[in-house]
From TrEMBL:
Subcellular location: Membrane
GO cellular component, one term: mitochondrial outer membrane
Any Pfam family the entry gives: Porin_3
Keywords for this protein: Ion transport, Membrane, Porin, Transmembrane, Transmembrane beta strand, Transport
GO MF annotation terms: porin activity; voltage-gated monoatomic anion channel activity
This protein's name: Uncharacterized protein
Amino acid sequence: MVKGPGLYTEIGKKARDLLYKDYQGDQKLSVTTYSSTGVAITTTGTNKGDLFVGDVTTQVKNKNFTADIKVATDSSLLTTFTYDEATPGLKAIVSAKVPDQKSGKVELQYLHDYAGICTSVGLTASPIVNFSGVVGNNVLALGTDVSFNTQSGDFKQFNAGFSFTKDDLIAALTLNDKGDKLNASYYHIVNPLSNTVVGAEVTHSFTTQKNAITVGAQHALDPLTTLKARVNNDGVANALIQHQWRPKSFITVSGEVNSRAIEKGAKVGFALALKP
C-alpha cells in the first residue's frame, strides 16, 4: 500500500470533511441492494423544497475493473469505467454524461511513495487538459493543480497547495482561483479514543479583501453516534448527529440557524442511508 503524499485533492481534505461533510439541508433517502452476482444497485431520492430529484446507480465489479452507470430524474446518464492497478500505483478512469457531449474525459492517476499525479483530457476536438501533481511524503506535501483550455489558449485554473501532517495535526495552505484566494486550514485530533476533533478554515480574497472563517468540531457520543457542529463569521451555525444503527447504514439529522436572520427560523435536514 502506497503511503506517499496522495493526490492534490487530499490537501486539506480532512479539514473540509470535518467542516462540510454530511451536513444536510434537505431530506434524502439512499438504499443499496446487492444481487446474487454481486451487482450493487443504489437508489437515491432527495426532496429539495418543492422539487424532488432522484437517481439509480448500478455498479459492477470484476477484479480490478469497475463500471458505474447512473440514471437521474433529469434524463441524464452518467457512465464511469475504472481500471485500478493497470500497473502498480496506476488507475485509469473513463467517464461521460449523456446528453452532454462535452462531458467525456479520460483520467489517469498514479500514486508513488513520494509523488501523486493526476491528469485528464476531455474527449472533444478542443479539450480542457488538467494536470495536478504532488511531491513529498506522508508528512510534507507540495503540489499544484492546473487546467488549460486548448480552444481559447488560456489557463482555466491554476492552484497550488502545501500540507503538513504530524501525529494528531494536519495543516494545509492553498492558493486558488489563479492566485486570488488564499485558504488556510487545520485539523487537530484532541482525543482519539472519543474521536474528538477540532478544525478551522480561513479564506482571504485579494480582490475583495474579504475573509471567510469557519470553525468546527466533532465528538463521538458512543462508538456508533457522532455529533458535529460548525459556525462561520456570517453567524450561520450548523449541527448534526449521525448514528450508525447497523453496519454501513446511517441516519443523520442536521440543523442550521442564522443568527442574523432568526425570524426565518431554523432549517432541518434528514438523511437515511441503508445498506445490507
